[in-house]
Amino acid sequence: MLEVSNLAKSFGNRQILKNISFTLADGEILTVVGPSGAGKTTLLRIIAGLETADAGTMTLGGQTYQLSGEDRGAVGVVFQDFNLFPNLSVIDNITLAPQLALKKDKAEAEKEARELLGKLQMADKGNLYPYQLSGGQKQRVAIARALAMQPKMLCYDEPTSALDPALRDQVAELILSLKDSGLTQLIITHDMDFAKKVADQVLEVKPLEG
Amino acid sequence: MNYVFEILPSLFSGAGMTLEIFFETLIFSLPLGVILSFGLNSRFKPLKWFLNVYVWLMRGTPLLLQLIFVFYGLPIIGLTFPRYMAAIVAFVLNYTAYFAEIFRGGNQAIDKGQIEAAKVLQLTYGQTLRKIVIPQVIKIVLPSIGNEVINLVKDSSLVYVIGLGDLLRAGNLATSRDVTLVPLVLVALIYLLLIGLCTVILRKLEKHYSYYR
Ligand SMILES: Nc1ncnc2c1ncn2[C@@H]1O[C@H](COP(=O)(O)OP(=O)(O)OP(=O)(O)O)[C@@H](O)[C@H]1O
Ligand SMILES: [Mg+2]
């Protein structure tokens, strides 16, 4: 279960987020919507531990975080521009962290990575480098890379913004299949159809005055 | 032809000095440049300010002046270096500044998203540096480092002003003694050879890093 309560954030004296609270059961999907500049990415970054909050707490998998940027091993992120490592092949992108952070041996990490790639219809792409992939393929590598760390929760920043309609439906299916495996997911999107298709809950982030 | 073989040993011994200065300067100034580059990006203002002044001084004055300053100038205030040591001190100080600037630019060119991606994947700072940042920085800086390395081969000839017997000095001595152009032509050929070699090695390195974009 993910529980966020009373999260608040200002940059300088500009308040961006205030009183954000929600609860997600395991395997539920929350979509975060709202106009540009409202603070959606900021919220994701706070939950992922990339940004500190001014107030609020977060509980995930029985552990409570003070939202002060501490390690959040259980949260995976699919960044808007994916942030794949250009110097590493697809397989190495996926297996680097399991080997270094989870201390898996190379063979095991690679076996799991190949399974993940198979599930994402990318079985033949393991030895390519990010520059050789299309946007949609990069995104699936980013998802595989995050999943390889066995997160309790996965966050996406506008996963459909760069995709054509057919690919968008594919991502929706992928997200729903991950839901079936019990993964909790938080998805920022501007795409209302997409949001409706996948969401159990919708969080609207509104711009604050001033 | 005989004359060529006669003077080659002295030219080669001069080239030996040139290479010694070349390698010793690189061995010290490359790692120092990497370390100082972090200081140049540091949020600790006094350190950053100090290093910026250092880089400005080193890049803003001629290396020849720095060399003379270290060997002939510093003894006046009681700091005396032997010739070779003076040359190395001056070259290392100078090249470290150039390398630090180059590495600073390289570090800044790394997308912050790379470091954030590594963070959410639970990599430590050291692991992120080793596996993500450094390989990417090397690829970025390699062409500029290559330019400096080639400059260093030629700059090493400046040590003749403090009386070190490098390649240029050996050629110059032979030319004025025997009144012939041959030694200077040979010196030029040896420099060309050394720089050709550097160029080939640098191309190889750049090729090695061209497997990704
Ligand atoms: N590091 C920062 N320092 C100062 N202000 C910031 C910082 N990051 C974000 N902001 C500001 O916070 C506000 C919210 O930004 P955020 O990126 O969260 O918006 P968003 O809802 O994701 O917008 P979009 O839909 O365009 O992606 C913006 O006004 C932005 O300028
Ligand atoms: Mg955003």
TrEMBL record, chain A:
Pfam families: ABC_tran. Residues 2-208 form the ABC transporter domain. Its EC number is 3.6.3.-. Keywords: ATP-binding, Hydrolase, Nucleotide-binding, Transport. One of its GO terms (molecular function) is ATP hydrolysis activity. The keyword Transport applies. This is Glutamine ABC superfamily ATP binding cassette transporter, ABC protein.
UniProtKB/TrEMBL annotation, chain B:
The keyword Glycoprotein does not apply. It comes from the Bacteria. SUPFAM superfamilies: MetI-like. Its main location: membrane. InterPro entries: AA_ABC_transptr_permease_3TM, ArtM/GltK/GlnP/TcyL/YhdX-like, MetI-like, MetI-like_sf. GO terms for biological process: amino acid transport. It is found in: Cell membrane. NCBIfam families: HEQRo_perm_3TM (TIGR01726). Belongs to the binding-protein-dependent transport system permease family. This is Glutamine ABC superfamily ATP binding cassette transporter, membrane protein. It comes from Lactobacillus equicursoris 66c.
